[in-house]
Design brief:
The protein contains 8 helices and 8 strands; from the N terminus they run E-H-H-H-H-H-E-H-E-E-E-H-E-H-E-E. It is α/β, with parallel strands linked by helices. It has one domain: Rossmann fold, CATH 3.40.50. The strands form 2 sheets. Strands 3-2-1-6-7-8 form a 6-stranded mixed sheet, with helices on both faces. Strand 6, helix 8 and strand 7 form a beta-alpha-beta unit. Helix 1 runs antiparallel to helix 2.
């Protein structure tokens, strides 16, 4: 249930709230540097293909998830996600910390909208006071991670789709949106004029 409040703020996570891409930072945190770089070495052909737009962001992400997590128990990912919540404050942008604090003081609804996987984002988001987390969902069969996503990667049009599916925007007088990439364009378009921020500058 959405709290009865006048404003709502949508935040992208990687690059907007954080200084680092948590897809990589989380896995280095969880697996350790040596194991992490060894696995990334095997991913180089995939990363090359993504860089030259030969494969989609979703295909590249599923390749990464498969290398690190395929066959592992979801519980293991959840446990590392809980631990990672203690790491996230070290990589937050000061602008994000200030904006989140300001919205909390104003009583606004806080929504994190991210392409990252829910299990390593939501534990921190809950401690930070976010009311909702809209994220990419990892596919699980019989308690084991398949390496695929369940549904679409939460970026671009999917961000707007998930927002509209979860929240009635007509309930709010002011809509704030914060992003830093092309994948946030549709989400940013939902913001009230003058309340939309791209790379922490008011968007035109």
């Amino acid at each position: 249930m959405i709290p009865d409040k006048r404003g709502i703020a949508f935040f992208d996570f990687d690059g907007t709230v954080t200084r680092l891409d948590t897809l990589w930072d989380f896995h280095k945190f969880a697996f350790g540097a040596t194991c992490f770089y060894r696995k990334v070495f095997f991913l180089l052909p995939v990363l090359f293909a993504y860089a030259f737009r030969m494969i989609s962001a979703q295909a590249a992400k599923e390749a990464v998830l498969s290398v690190f997590w395929k066959g592992k128990a979801l519980q293991t990912l959840e446990e590392y996600g809980q631990k990672y919540a203690g790491r996230v404050p070290d990589i937050l942008r000061k602008e994000a910390v200030q904006a989140i604090r300001r919205h909390k003081e104003n009583g606004d609804v806080l929504v994190l909208v991210t392409a990252s996987i829910r299990e390593w984002v939501e534990p921190w988001a809950k401690t930070a006071g976010f009311h909702f987390v809209l994220a990419s969902e990892i596919e699980v069969e019989d308690g084991r991670i398949t390496g695929r996503l369940q549904g679409a990667n939460c970026t671009g049009p999917e961000k707007e789709k998930q927002i509209r599916k979860t929240i009635n925007l007509d309930d709010f007088e002011e809509i704030y949106a914060y992003g830093d990439s092309e994948g946030d364009r549709e989400m940013l378009s939902l913001g009230t004029k003058g309340k939309t921020y791209y790379k922490w500058r008011v968007a035109e």
